[in-house]
Write a structure and sequence with these properties.
The chain is an alpha+beta fold. It has five helices and 14 strands. Helix content is 19%, strand content 43%.
């Protein structure tokens, strides 16, 4: 990755035209060929950019540009659309390159898989004395997240979401309809579990006899297999 701080102006031509007048900016040229133009404000968003696949070439400035103080010109061209980003550089204040290696990617904490795993380890949150039958319990239209049995042996199907909306309730309703046809499970109770359940989803769930369970992810992370942490 090459990081250049320069006094520059930028012109974008293609499906739209845009102009950034002369100012000091950060130019980020990544290993994938993309170029991002940043200012010292505007949060994380670049002022302008060119996404890959693209290529960067350096050009000599024209006579008029040279007389105006331009020392070099970058042209970044998109290989498929032909859109171009033309950067007129007047002065380079800093120019560094770094090999960042292969990035493992973003690993999200608190996704549905994490909630499902934690709830499977803490099934007492679903019903006191409950036991886990299986995660990803199969049905003809896909697996329900958790199948558990309460202390009396009644089957409970649990659908887990980060944010519970009407679509999630509809999904669990379809699972319950199919599972209820199995004489070894019927009657099957339904639990809709999420970190946040929208009011409309709660109304629909309760109207269909589905119990809603709000999950506290941070609190659940503090417990593993029913054993509280000391710290």
């Amino acid at each position: 990755m090459r990081l250049v701080i320069a006094r520059c102006s930028v012109d974008y031509t293609g499906r739209l035209n845009a102009h950034l007048p002369l100012a000091t900016r950060l130019l980020v040229h990544k290993g994938d060929g993309s170029l991002l133009v940043h200012s010292d404000g505007g949060s994380y968003k670049p002022l302008n950019w060119m996404s890959p696949p693209c290529s960067l070439t350096t050009e000599e400035p024209g006579d008029e540009e040279s007389s105006a103080g331009v020392t070099e010109v970058w042209r970044v061209t998109h290989k498929k659309t032909g859109d171009a980003l033309r950067v007129q550089i007047y002065e380079i204040l800093s120019d560094t390159s770094h090999d960042l290696g292969v990035d493992p990617g973003l690993q999200k904490d608190g996704v549905e898989a994490d909630l499902q795993r934690l709830l499977a380890e803490q099934v007492d949150l679903i019903a006191e004395g409950a036991t886990l039958v299986r995660r990803e319990y199969p049905t003809a239209i896909g697996p329900v997240d958790l199948m558990v049995r309460d202390a009396a042996g009644a089957a409970i199907a649990v659908e887990v979401k980060r944010r519970g909306d009407i679509d999630g309730v509809e999904q669990l309703t379809r699972y319950l309809e199919l599972l209820g046809r199995d004489p070894h499970l019927s009657p099957v109770q339904g639990v809709f579990a999420a970190q946040e359940i929208k009011p409309q989803a709660r109304v629909l769930a309760e109207d269909r006899g589905i119990r809603c369970l709000v999950l506290d992810y941070e609190d659940m992370k503090g417990v593993e297999s029913g054993i509280p942490r000391l710290f």
